[in-house]
Amino acid sequence: MEGLDDIVEEFLVESHENLDQLDQDLVALEQDPRSRERLSSIFRTIHTIKGTSGFLAFNKLEEVAHVGENLLSRLRDGALDLTPSRTSALLLMTDTIRALLAEIEASGGEGSTPVADTVVVLSAALEDAPAEAAVEAAAAVVEAAEAVVEAEAEVVAEAQAAAPAPVKKAAAKKPPAKRASRAKTPVPAPAPVPAVENVPVPSPPVAAPAPVAELPQEVPVPEVPAAPAALAPEPGTPEAQPKGRGVADSTIRVDVDLLDNLMLLVGELVLTRNQIVQYVGRQNDQDLIRASQRLNLIASELQESAMKTRMQPIDHIWSKLPRVVRDLGLQCGKAVRLEMEGKDTELDKTLLEAVKDPLTHLVRNSVDHGIEDTAGRAAAGKPAEGVLTLRSRHESGQVVVEVADDGAGIDPAKIGRKAVEKGLITADALSRMSPQDLLQLIFLPGFSTAAAVTNVSGRGVGMDVVKTNIEGIGGTIEVESVAGRGTCMRLRIPLTLAIVPALTIECAGDRYAIPQISLQELVALDAEKAAAAVEDVGGASVYRLRGELLPLVHLADVLGLTSDRHDGHVVIAVLSSEGRRFGLVVDRVINTEEIVVKAVSGQLKQIGLYSGATVLGDGAVALILDVQALARRALRTETTDRQEHRLAAAAAAASVSERQRMLLAAIGGGRRVAIPLDTVTRLEQVRSDTVERVGSREVVQYRGAILPIVRLDRHLGAFGDSDREVLEVIVYADHGRSVAIVVEEILDIVDGEAAVQSDIDDLGLLGSAVIGDRVTELLDVRAAILAADPAFYSPAPGALPGGLGSMPDIDTSAFGFEGTSSPLMEV
Amino acid sequence: MSSATATATRTMPATSQLATFWLDGDLFGVEVEHVQEVLRSQSITRVPLAPPAVAGLINLRGQVVTAIELRERLGRKPRPEGQEAVVIVVRLHGEAVSLLVDSIADVVDVDVRDFEAPPDTLDGVGRDLIRGAYKLSGQLLLALDVNRAVGT
């Protein structure tokens, strides 16, 4: 049985169930022959079996079902009446199908189970045959079949070989089951001519439809003895099978609600177990400790088993994809080969259902957009046939599903242009985005890169829906793409929704749970380190995590509580949400444990910080923090937020106020400049004596690279104190290049409601705004960077103002004056 | 006060049973059929940023149930330090919610004829949550509108 395909196995289970139902239906039908409902139900069952067996190439099965279906359809349409003989014929059909299924289950093939007799009987029943004759015919066949069981091989062979020639001998003599009697019996019933077409027995290659004469010799004898007793078309067959449970007996169908309930109870048990284990840990009673250890083990195993009842291999949803790919490939004129790795990876049924549509969408996308047409592939020097690879695997408590193609990849620049064209982002925002950020744009609503709208995809709905769906089940989606090499979409899906691993932390004396899925790492800083590494400017703090600026969110502040940690230690949980990282400052990290997610009432959900609650090991209730909501609430610069703002801005069709976090810096002369924080990668301090000159430009060695420097005071024409020993430097990095922007002092990080004056378009500045009651200039980061490194945005976009060519020489301050004076005066 | 006094001609049930409890010196009652159980000394997990009347969450045999501080809800002064609240778990529309009160009292049968609109002495917030008062001998029993009380 292990050789059986999953599909076949499923077919068997389903068919066995259907047949049981069929028996009942048929008998009931006899009582009430006019019942359309029952007839339709029976018809559907047989139709299904026929369809599937045809698909699986079980030709005999198909043949029997086909004739049966014919009969049933005529009965259903009222063209024929259900006589006892026809009922018998149908029951015989059921038995034959059962025998065939048993054989398929045992050997994987149909073997030599005889079906011709059944076909004959059914065909006879199709005609207005005298009832008596048909009954007898049926009886004869049944008995003959029984006889076959005991019969010797050659007899079987004979019966079988005889079968293909029934045209004139439909079988209806007196019952005595003389083995070959049927074959020789003259037919009292009118010859069922149409039956001829149905008769050809597929498996043993018996010559042709004219075989009456040459009987037994043609039959491939060796095959026949292989037919065991179980093959007899007799209901009792399963007993004849020596080995364990058959497919139908080894599985049962269970209501999913029941499984949900089971899962719930197991969840409770796990919690109670946690409680007991914790309590027993403080005891000295050896017996109690042993008992609790056993309980611990059993509960874990039970949990695992209960979870497994809901697990299904991902192949369930993958199995439909080869067809999708094939059809789509034909439609698009592309040759695509689908490869699958990790078909057996299992995940929760509910989740499986939830990822089905997104996954199909991704596959369609890959074929439609990802893989080039044959000519395109040839031009790119790739094999004509594109390869689409589906991979799935378990990885740290999650299921990772990848849809990868070896197509053209996604060109970030093209994405960017498209997004600007569609008004999804501003050109200015585009200039600040990294290629990876650009790729994320495909998840924006209303985005589509297809040059032409096809009926396959390209309508601009989809990727955002995919993202929403995946995130709805606590998963994430990432896109990776190398132009010319291909694209890989990676889904990360939790194994199950009911029980999730979580980190429990403490804040202001209370415990909270953070789902492990959003946790990246933990950072603990002692007071001394924290003082140096956490830059706390005006209430907004950042931490330099391996050189990257990590915005910090103090959980106590968000919750409106007062932290009870006063020793200066800082514990940071580095979390990621929607592709954006931030650090959550908590008082203490307690533990990681499996928690059961409980819903909280609507009014608590409305607060928008908690995704639920859970009961911890000691029985206390802990709130589960909603990391995404937390990020949205706490981080103004968070990606989706920014995107929303940009969308809003685009809708207003003007450069209106854009709310974002700004880094405030003094540049000397009492002037303040605001720099969008999201363009800043690092804050550094550089000793002024390390500044060197290359030609007319200043550079500094930094992390093994040469970092061009722009001094904002000079760039903007303010006279700062240039004799300082230590320079405050804002590092901006993109496309693997970095520049250092020197300011006099970092002042603050603020949420800027920056009312940009649209008519001001001077070099070096975007405009000015009132931030924190003071006029602040908004730095044109792009211009500043180009001042330091003209090749920064190479290949240089044509949009640069002509004057920029001279920017490297701006050491002369006159230039800057001109650029900055007007905004100041206008405000 | 007993059911014997009821006459068959009344359209609404003549008597009903109220589970009574004390809160800030007053006697309140809720319909017995709403009450699921009464618990003592439960540890409550506070919910930051929740409406003030939400005292927090309690663990009711694995169920997480919201606890409403009835004193806050009725606009009364906070419970004195050291006095522990009693938890009345009520079931409304299939969902369990719990009310924090001072102490639990008897289940009493009340007669509709003793019912009156809320006394004028009741002030603003609390008034909306009180259906009315039953004049018991020597004591006024305030009938709490449970649905409103939990709908913060």
From TrEMBL, chain A:
Residues 160-194, 228-247 are annotated as: Disordered. One of its GO terms (cellular component) is cytoplasm. Residues 292-497 form the Histidine kinase domain. Its EC number is 2.7.13.3. Pfam families: CheW (PF01584), H-kinase_dim (PF02895), HATPase_c (PF02518), Hpt (PF01627). Residues 1-107 form the HPt domain. Residues 499-636, 659-790 form the CheW-like domain. It is found in: Cell membrane. The modification Phosphohistidine is found at H47. It catalyses: ATP + protein L-histidine = ADP + protein N-phospho-L-histidine. GO terms for molecular function: phosphorelay sensor kinase activity. One of its GO terms (biological process) is chemotaxis. Residues 160-169, 228-240 have a biased composition (Low complexity). Residues 170-182 have a biased composition (Basic residues). Keywords: Kinase, Phosphoprotein, Transferase, Two-component regulatory system. PANTHER family: CHEMOTAXIS PROTEIN CHEA, SENSOR HISTIDINE KINASE CHEA. This is histidine kinase. It comes from Modestobacter versicolor. The lineage of its organism: Bacteria, Bacillati, Actinomycetota, Actinomycetes, Geodermatophilales.
TrEMBL record, chain B:
Residues 15-152 form the CheW-like domain. GO terms for biological process: chemotaxis; signal transduction. Pfam families: CheW. GO terms for cellular component: cytosol. PANTHER family: CHEMOTAXIS PROTEIN CHEW (PTHR22617:SF23), CHEMOTAXIS SENSOR HISTIDINE KINASE-RELATED (PTHR22617). This is Purine-binding chemotaxis protein CheW. The lineage of its organism: Bacteria, Bacillati, Actinomycetota, Actinomycetes, Geodermatophilales.
